[in-house]
Every structure is written in structure tokens, then in C-alpha cells.
Amino acid sequence: MENTKEMRSWLDDMNLGHPLVIAGPCSAETEAQVLRIANELKDTDVNYYRAGIWKPRTRPGNFEGVGALGLKWLQKVKAETGLKTATEVANRAHVELALEHDVDLLWIGARSTVSPFIVQEIADALEGTDKVVLIKNPVNPDLSLWLGAVERLHTANIKKLGVIHRGFSSYERTKYRNIPEWQLAIDLQTRFPDLPIINDPSHITGKRDMIFDVSQTALDLNFDGLMIETHHDPDNAWSDAAQQVTPARLVQIMKDLKIRKETDSEAEYTRKLSNLRAQIDILDHQLIETLGKRMKVSDGIGQLKKQKNVAVLQSNRWNQILGAMILEGETKGLSEEFVLKMFKAIHQESINHQEKIINA
Ligand code: PEP
Ligand code: MN
Q1: Coiled-coil region(s) at which residues (predicted)?
Q2: Which of 209, 237, 256 is the last residue of a domain?
Q3: CB–CB of 104/86 below 8 Å?
Q4: Considering only Cβ atoms within 10 Å of each terminal Cβ, which end of the chain, N or C, has fewer?
Q5: 75/173 same-domain check
Q6: Residue 247 shares a structural domain with residue 334
Q7: Coil, strand or helix: which one is 17?
Q8: How many domains is the chain partitioned into structurally?
Q9: Which of 22, 63, 200, 203 to mutate to test the pocket of ligand 1 (most atoms within 8 A of CB)?
Q10: What predicted TM-score, i.e. pTM, was given to this entire model?
Q11: What are the backbone angles phi and psi of residue 287, rounded to the nearest 5°?
């Protein structure tokens, strides 16, 4: 893709002075609900009012959206509050209806980005549009699939583009609903530095009390904006109740977030530094997470050794590990001294874990 600067003119031309904010309920439920939330978000930093009209649910039987009727409510939102509107489209019929109802921003959901057939159908239906189109990352952590979707839309002569990072699903239980895998978003930024990237902390966390921290990390990594699900009565929302915040909380979040300016060279330095520090923080968390997992596996070995009445320390095995890790460390630029010290400490902790189990 050449001429990627053009893709972000829709955002630059807004001259916001703050990150782009897309907010509104997960789902449009009733006309009164849609209008109430929109009115509470009027005169805030919110730039686009979002509401899901067609809801792709992982399992059938959950609320699947009000359908085209809700698009009329979004038209009323625009007329009453002046807010621009945004919704998810997942096929040609959705695109046609959204365009007929003058929706300003259309996004492709994570479950659609995984399918090149669907993405192509949407790209064909949107060909040449002057609406803003944002592409959520696919549910699985696959950068090419995400980039491929951007390319399909770009090829369909859609000029106002951007991506939304909403995290990735994993079979493992984590504190996130969808793990952020920040490195993947950073890789995408490196490939297309001009492509606007919006963070969706609501779907990453699945929990409203984690939204602030994830938003701050995103801003530290120079994301261009945030999409935050907002509802006047989150606990009683028809979908994604646990992750929605009230309009008042959204305003507070936006007030408390530290927004890094990037004007003069001093600011450029701070920006680069905080970007690198945010990457270090992420890696440090991953280190602790990995070490925790390693000790859990070690506990499992302790259980087995206890059953078989085998000694905790088996020096052959330990020397093998150490030799292999020193060699592998070398290929990553790690000194022998460092790898040795680190693995001695890890090994000691592992022995402590196993002894605790055997002597329990
Ligand atoms: C949504 O934004 O409500 C949604 C369904 O998101 P995702 O496609 O990220 O799951
Ligand atoms: Mn949702």
C-alpha cells in the first residue's frame, strides 16, 4: 500500500487536540436507551457515537441486536445531539442499510475480519465510499489476516481507513477477556505508521475496572484513539454488561488519562521514551506471567515425584537445561554469566516449590 498518509487525513482534519473517542452502548436496545446515552455523551470528548445494531454472538440465544430499526434511532441521535454515528457491518445488506441511514463510520468486527470472503464482500459493497471504515483485529492473533483486510479495503478505493485493536481470544484463562498481545499491534504500527489505530479496552478487558489501565497503555504506545462501550445502566445492559461504563465514568477516564503531546523535540524524546518504557512494562509482566507458569509446571513435577517417592534434585537433568539455555542465550545476545545467575535463581525457586509439595 502506498500513500498511506492519505488514510489518516480524516483524523488529522478533525484537529482534535485529544485522542479520538468512539463511545456508546455495546448494543442498541430501545430508542429511549439509545437517545438517553447519546444525550449524556453530548458535549463531552466523544466524537463518534457507537451502537451495535447486528450483534455477532459467539453462542446463539444471546441478544442478537434490534436490526435495521435501530438505524433510525441512530439518525435521531445525529439530529438531536450532532454526534456522528458508528456501527458494525458484517455483510453487504448491513452495508447498504447503514449507508442508506447515513451512518458516518462503519467497522468490521473481529469475527468478520477472520474471513477474507466476508471482508471482500464488505469491501465490494463499500467500494469508493467516503465514510470512515475501521477494521477490528481478527479474533486470532494473525497479523497477515488483519493487514489483508486493510489491503482489501484500500484496493476498493476506500480512503478513510483505520484499525481497532480489541485483543485476541485464547483458550487459556487470563485476566483479560481478549489478551492484548501488544507486540502485534506495535508490529502493525511499524508496518503502517500512518494508519490510525484505535484501542478497544472494553473488549480487551471484559471488565470495567480494568479499562483505565489498558487505555493508558494504549496512549503510551501512541494509539490515536479509544473505543469504549458506554451505557447509562451498565449492569442491566442486554450485552457485555460487565465491561460497560457509565457516561460519567467515561468523562472521568478521559480526564484522568495522561495524553502525551508530540510537538517539539523535547516532547518527541518523552514520547519515544514512554513508548519504549511501555514496551518494557509489557515484557516484564510477561516475564512474571511466564515464571509463574513455570512454577506451576514445577509443582506438577513435585506431585509426581512425591507419588513415586523420588528425590527432588536430579542433577543430570539440571545440567542439561543449563547447557541448553546458555547456548540459546548466546544467540539472543545474553551473556553466559547472566543466564547462569538467572537460571540458578529460577532453579532454586523451583526446588523450593517442589520441596513444599513433597513435605506437605
Ligand atoms: C462490539 O464492538 O460490540 C463487538 C462485537 O466487538 P468485537 O467484534 O471486537 O467482538
Ligand atoms: Mn460489545
Answers
A1: none
A2: 256
A3: yes
A4: C
A5: yes
A6: no
A7: coil
A8: 2
A9: 203
A10: 0.80
A11: -60, -50
Tell me what pLDDT residue 80 has: 97
- Closest ligand 1 atom to Cα of 112: 8
Instruction: List the residue whose alpha carbon is closest to atom 8 of ligand 1.
Output: 109
CA dist., res. 179 & res. 328, Å (int) = 28
The Å distance, Cα 203 to ligand 1 centre, comes to 7
Please tell me whether residues 205 and 338 are part of one structural domain.
Answer: no
Query: Using a 6 Å cutoff on CB, does residue 52 contact ligand 1?
Result: yes
Residue 304 has a CB neighbour count (10 Å cut-off) of: 11
Question: 54 and 65 in contact (C-beta within 8 Å)?
Answer: yes
Ligand 1 atom closest to residue 203's alpha carbon, by position in its atom list: 9
Residues in the chain where the model's pLDDT stays below 50: none
Evaluate: CB of 109 within 6 angstroms of ligand 1. Answer: yes
* Domain co-membership, 183 together with 323: no
CATH number at residue 348: 1.20.59.10
Domain span including residue 131: 4-256
Ligand 1, atom 2: closest residue by C-alpha: 26
pLDDT at 266: 67
The ligand 1 atom at the shortest distance from the C-alpha of residue 166 is: 9
- Closest residue by Cα to atom 6, ligand 1, is 109
Say if residue 71 is in the same domain as residue 191.
Answer: yes
DSSP 8-state code for residue 30: -
The last residue of a domain, from among 232, 256, 280 = 256
The bound ligand whose nearest atom lies closest to the alpha carbon of 178 is: 1
